[in-house]
Prior knowledge:
27% helix; Ku70, Chain: A, Domain 2
Amino acid sequence: MAHRSHARRNSGRSHGTRGETRSRASGEAARPRRGGGSPAGRGIWSGSISFGLLQIPVTLIPAESRSEELHFRLLDRRDLSPVRYERVSTSTGKPVEWKDIVKGYEIEKDSFVVVEPEDFEKANVKATHTIDILDFVPRDQIDPAFFETPYYVVPQDRAKKAYVLLREALQKKDAVAVATFVLRTREHLVALMPAGDALMLEVLRFGHELKDADAIPLPSSDDAKALNARELAMAEQLVEGMMTEWDPAKYRDKYYRDVMKIIEEKAKTGETKEHHTRTTGTVAHDDVVDLLDLLKKSVAKSGKAANDAKPGPKKARPRKTASKRRSAA
């Protein structure tokens, strides 16, 4: 039995990606691409930025583009009918109706505290329509691990001057505004920062949502003292040789592209082919001699790649001799 598949092509990623937002933690603002009007997309929140006595009416538009996410349905292999999840009791094995389902928090194994809808309402913060600036901090002091979700902040027409005022002040001071606002039913900690012509709002993780790096077995600063000066110099040379300007358009999601090619191939012929050569993985080296040898080879390779990328002088075309022109005639 043949089952027809449909493959849909998606447009390229929006320039407001999460990866670009991360770069701003080191002081480099990801500039939104110019091109007529406000960013495409529907606003998810409208309100005002509270900046001293100023109230700047704005709208938030998601900066992430999820158009290229891969979504699959689970199917029964025998006839490709979609598989449906059922809510089944672990004690009886029978389906449970929605009306009989409650939320419980497991305080210890198999011991739960039931939390009712009215309990959640008591915890909900009062919805407001303001982004309340609490502090201004140096841009490079916020660790990129805190960044979670980016949004464009778009001013209403009557607030453009105040919007530009805040944007330029942050830009001049190389600062980020730390603020709070309520989205849906939860209060969020956020950072407002300039990015080209835009103000970006990045939802931040709270401190308790990140693991303490001290609890993770990482090499300490004392381990750096044991480095061989020759190794470090060679590693720095490798970094220098590969240094370039940040260009997000240079990087593409190869996995998404290849999966879509496979889907299109199967839709047409039912067959697929390999799109990448399979690799066995790399071997980690901890021997000093091996490490130096690998660094030397890497530096040589990166230097050759850089030279190959440079446009060389054009070769002159060989001129035809008089005898060749006569024979050609």
